[in-house]
Each structure stands twice: as structure tokens, then as C-alpha cells.
Design brief:
The chain is α+β, with helices and mostly antiparallel strands. Among the domains are: 579-674; 688-744; 756-869, no CATH class. The chain has ten helices and 50 strands. The strands form 16 sheets. It has a four-stranded antiparallel sheet with strand order 1-34-33-32, with no helix packed on it. A four-stranded antiparallel sheet has the order 4-5-6-7. Strands 8-9-10-13 form a four-stranded antiparallel sheet, with no helix packed on it. α7 runs parallel beside α9 and α8 packs antiparallel against α9. The longest helix has 19 residues, at 758-776. It is elongated, with a radius of gyration of 33 Å. The relative contact order is 0.08. Residues 453-482 are annotated as: Disordered.
Length: 869
Amino acid sequence: MHFTKPAWVMHKDSAKSDGNNKKLSIFSVHVHPDGSRIATGGLDAKIRIWSTKPILNQASELSGKPPKSLCTLTMHTGPVLTVRWAHSGKWLASGSDDESVVIWDHDPNARGRVWGSDEVNVEGWKPLKRLQGHESDVTDVAWSPGDRYLASVGLDSAVIIWCGFTLERLHKLDQHQGFVKGVCWDPVGEFLATQSDDRTVKIWRTTDWSLEAEVSKPFEDSPGSTFFRRLSWSPDGAHITASNATNNKGYVFIAAVITRNTWTSEISLVGHENTVEVAAYNPHIFLRNPAAPISTSNICSVVALGADDRSVSVWQTKSARPLIVAKEVFERQIMDLSWSWDGLTLYAASSDGTIAAFQFDPSELEGIASLPDQEQYLTKFGFVPPPLPDGYSHVSKQEPVNVAHAPQQANGLNSRAASPGPEKVNILVAKRAPKDKKRAALVPGAAASIPTNRIPSSASGSIVPATSSASQPNGMQGPKRAQLSFSDSFPLPSEQPFVDSSEPWPRHADLGHAMDLDVPINTFENVLQSNAKGKRKASSIIDLTDDNSKAIKARTLGGDRAVEVHVPNGSGLGPLLPVPSLLSYISSEVEGTGELLEAKNMEQDGKTEVAFVSGKQTEWLDYLPSPVLVVKATSSYCAVGTEDGSIHVYSHTGRRLMPTLVMGAPCSVMEGCKMHCLNVKAQKVNFGPVSIQPLYNLSPNFSLVSAGVRENGGSDFGQGRQRANSTVASRGILASIEASIAVTPDESAAEKPRPSWWSAALTLGHLETRLHSTKLLDSPSEYKQALLLYAKKIADEGFRGKAEELIRELFGPVYWRPGKDNSWNASVIGYSKRDLLREVLSVFARSKTLASLASHWQDTLKKALNDDH
């Protein structure tokens, strides 16, 4: 990956006459569809168009060919907050602090000196139409697929839909209750998404512009101080990545991934140390396995995040870790991100007045699906757009860039030794009609009847009236979009292949490590409340850094990966329930306490970590052999369901309360509640015949060695892997699926590095399993041996919480009250619990950490025994 930060791309403060040109904030950057130019909008109320060749090619930069600055547009009277090229490449839309949206059209005769300055425009752009309708700052705009619609959002809490042909206003959506700071379109054309300071993302149907869904949970604790909330829709149409979301009551900053149709957010991109300001998806669908055909299980996307911690991260949805993390790239927060059409260059703009380009090698972002395959894949959603209204027809589309050869065609990654020379550039040519042709006028009111669906992907974004190709600046008579021409010549700028340095460039992140970002900077001061309406001045962001801002370290990384779950046939009765998605981070809160049960599925090393967190303190850890699908924490226990169909139950101190439960298949839903199932007439708990099929499902090599019934009513099944399944009548239906698990670990796994608490967690878990197993098998001697080993391990590690819980379990109730604690049994498989406690306390007394606790309970036990006698 090559990183470039051109110092000459800037918006200067022209008000200063001392010659010291201060860089002003850049709020937006966007790449032209042909990749030859970018547009930036800044605090100076200007739009500047730059050639990308000098940015990406050092030889071109030194030669001055093509010119670095192509054009400066000066119609806005306030800071320009957003710029977006149409998909056709013919028009440019800009939104400003002056409450207006301006559409710019290419004009070959508009070159010359910029009024009031020494700058010279080598490329001409003219204002085609000024769109009025917002009552406050316009913060973001977006073109729909095929350029049928233009959506604009602003600080007046409004979303306005404009016709992409006539530029007339079609609809105004006003259901947001706060500043709207982000907008994006569904690539299928079925939905529009907007994000606001009212802490919601709203999904709108394009067929009738009604509200489809509202997503609020990931944003409940999000700060309202971000300048933007720019969100992005994945190119496969399956997800929206929304900025400025949080986890853990606002302590962890994330980008929330919202799933299509269900409109839920179970996936988080975690790692930034301050609020995420902008998300931007790569425009292409990628194949996980390039040799396999495109399918839902074989695709992934690439998304970039820019945050207020001055860092940029790039993620591939097939991995839970970021591809790169670029720290300290800017001096202030990132405002906007934009991908080139070839999918290999990412541009970022910052409020420090600079931009940066991240140029990826094709080997780093391999597997781009072909354009026909991408278009065909989107048809699976079944959304069929209506035909275009009468009076419009598509000009045939120019030959698209071959993304498979984009590095050679667009970036020219050859050698920096290539010498610059005047070559042709992908240019914009305005096609004018013969003067003797009459201009066709649109019927008044026709805009309101335009169908609200997406133009077919096979059609061009260039729209012209059927009887004319004339362009009208006022937009009332059907402005024509000139198509991109790759063959016609244009004097400036000149085309030249981008060249690459032969020297290796360092990566900005190691894929083997988690995100470790820089200290975040403070966001903006004196920002209006999110539910207020009014103007927020873009100039308020100048020089508001705070060196004393405190960084909050994220505890985990989020993401998603393909779920490959083996679901046994079971009994074959009824349909299978859906298996939860396999996420990298899952949590459940103990209601009203702030305590949290967390599970982290590590993708690279295969570890699954379970942790119980109280406040910011980790109380205990455990490691499981199978990925976790569901978790549940209550005031009494913690439960974890894994991919192999097992359920692990813990106390709040981390002790296993029962043997591992083996279900027949992965758990679909887990909730904590109380349930009693009694046979009132017989006055006992009932359960029916129990199947041992779950034992067969655990191993393809299962063979039944023995079967029998024990004196306590339990049933035993033995097999070669030393598993046992015992059902005790008094324990009801729950016991029918209990089984201890003792799997021989993989010998090669011993060579892998382990976390610091790995050995302790696994040893304690093994001993707790042995305790439960020996009780089920009625083996007193083995139970006592396991108990003393368990006590010794607790003493060695100094786990006071576990020690105290074990002591109370063996001691029983201190004071007897009728109707209270009647369920406590003074013995366990033939041993007196208090006799066992005496030996356990002697083990604890030899520990420096637990000596005082043991001494206290030895005195208490002695008094209790004396009272009994």
C-alpha cells in the first residue's frame, strides 16, 4: 500500500494579505468516476477540482503535466460541506452552509482567471442550477444509482429528494428530530438511508418515500458533537455501515453494521479511540475465493472508516481485524472518505486542511468480481424498477473500466522511472445539438409523476430528452448529461499512466495485532443540542483541539465471518430453528448492575474467550474449545451457548455450576427465566425417555461400550472417548442432556502462544467438571480428591471470590430460619460438607492471599460444630 499526502492540495485563506496562506478545513472529497480528478469543498466557500495524476505519480507531479489544479468554483457564499459527482461524471453536486445545493455542469468555454484572484482555471465548470429548499446548512448529498434522484440533508432536520433529470424537488421527508448529517442510497435502488443527531438511522422506501424502518439501539449513547454522521451502503446491498455508534454505555466507539430487511445491528467495527465520523464502502463486490463463482457465501466487501482520533482504518468483511490502520495521518479529525472507481485508491480529507491518498496493490485487495456478475448479483433482491417516463432515453454507456485490469489502466503501477509526456486524459465533452434543432420542453408537473424506482443497472446514467440533446442551465427543459468520452481529446489535463515506486513502503498496521490507535482529539465545542433546529457554523471547528482529552481503549475488535455450523439431524421432528450469526463479540448485561458477560471469538488463533466484567474490572476469564453463539447473564448465573451445541453455566465468580450441557444442535435462543414442571398427583418431577443421539453427534467415531442404571437412578453410557451421560430422576429433564466433556487436546496446539490466564482458566474448568462428574457417578473418593485439588488451585491463584463461594456452599446457612434454606443438604455423596470444608480451609490457610479468609471461617466452623454438639 502506497501512502501520499500532497501538500499542494489545500484551501487557502485568501483574506490574509501577508503572504502566509493558512490551510483551511476541507470538509469533503470525492473522486470522479473516471478517476482522473477529485473535487474538494472547504471552509473558504470554494470547490476545487484537482488532477489525481500528480497526487499518485511523482514523475507527473515534478513535470507539472497535467496541471495540479484544474478549476476553482466560487458560487457558494458559505463553507462547502459536501461535494459529490454524479455517476455519469457529467454533473457535480455541492452542498453548503449557505442553505443551497448547486449543480455544476462541464463547460468547455468557461476557462480563464478566477475572479478576484491570480488563479487560472484550465477546465471549465458552470453552475447549472441552484436548488433551494433547505432552511439551514446542507451537510450531505448523494446521487441514486443511475442518477435518477439526488438526495440532500441538512441541519433543518429535512431530507429533500430532487429529480435527477429536471432537478425539481419531488419530496421532503421531515421525520427526523435532529440535525441530519449523512445520507446514502441502496445500490439496488429500493431504499434510502439517513442518519441524524436524533440518534437514529432511518430507512426510506423509494417506491412511496414512506418510512421502512428506524434503527436506534447502536446510537443510544452516541455523542451529539460530531460534525458529520456519514454512513455508507455495501455494494452487495446487504449492509449499512453507520458512523458514530457506541457499545458498553458509550465507553467503546464503534461503527454499527445494519443488516438489510431485519434492520438490526449485531455486528460492530470496534477499535477507534474516538467517534467514527465517516464510513465509505469500496464500490465493488469482492470474492473470498476468486476461483469460485459469485454467491452469498463467497462474497465480501471492503469498508473504510475515518474517526475523530485522526486515524483511518480499512476493513474486509471476511476478517474480524482491519486490513490497515493508519494512525497520525492527520493533525485533526477525518471529515470525508472516497474510493476511486477501480477500487484501489482511497482518498481522505481532514479538518486540518489536507487530504491523503491510500493506493493499494491489487494483491492486497484481490478478488474483485466482474461488473456483469456484480450487476447480476443485485437482481437477487427482486426489485424491478419501472420504466423511465416518456420524454427520456438513455445515451449508450461508455465502455466501463475493466476492474480486473484497473491497476494497469487507471493507476499504471509500472515504474517511477517512466518519463512524463503529453498524453490524452479521460475527458468530459459536452455534446451540443445542431443549431437548427428545436429544444424540447417538458410538460409542467411531469416531475411529480416520475417513478420512484432505480434505473436498470444496464442503462447509462446520461439522460436526454428523446427529441433533443440540448442542455439547459435552468433545469426546466430537460438538462442533458454529456457522456464520458475516453476517445476524444481535451487540451488539459493530459493523460499519463500513474507510476509506482520501486522502493517498498511499510504497512500501517500488522494484521496480527489488534487496532492500537492514537490518543483521540476532542470534538467540537459549543455545538447546538441535537434536537434543536438552526445553523451550525462550519468555522466553529477551527483550532479546537484538546491535548487533555482522555482516550478510551476498546477492549475488542468486531466484525463478522462466514458461519459454518454443523446441525445434526436430531430427531427429525419439525423444522430447524435458525442458528445465530457467528460474531466476534457478544455480550449480555446483568440487569440493573452494570455487570457484563462478554464472549470474544478470535478468528486467527481459534480461541474463544469468555469474561465477566464489572465496571472496568475483569472479574474472571475462561476459554472454550468452540466459538460462542449466544450468552445470557442474570442475577443468579451466567450461561454461554457454543457452536458445537454445548451450554456452559457459571456463577458470578466464574465457577461452573453444573456439567457442560450437550444439546443436539447449536442453541438458537437463550433467555434467563424461572420454570417449574411438576406432576401434582404423583408429587414428583416428570421427564420422558431420553435420547443419547447428542453423544453420537459429538464424534463421528462414537461407539457405545456399556450401558447401565445406577443405584441413585442415573443412567450411564460409556464409550471410547471417555464421555459419560448420567440422568438423575430428582434433577428432572435438565439432567437428560448433561454430560461431562473431556476431549484430548490437539498436541500441535501446545506450541501456539496462549493468553496469560489460559492455563489457570482451563485447569479450574477441568476440575469443576470433574467435581460434577464424580457426583453424577457416585464416586466419593474421586470427588474428595478433585475437591482438594480444586481448593489448592484456587489458593495458588489467590481467587478470593471463588474461595468464598466454595466455602459458603460447603458451610451452608449460618442461621436457620423456618422455610428458609430448607433445600440445603448437609452431605454430598456420603461426606459431610462441613467435614470437607475443614480440609478445604486448611488448604486455604497455607495461601498468603486467603489466610485471613480461612482463619475467619475456621473460627466460624468451630463455633458451629460446638453449637451442634
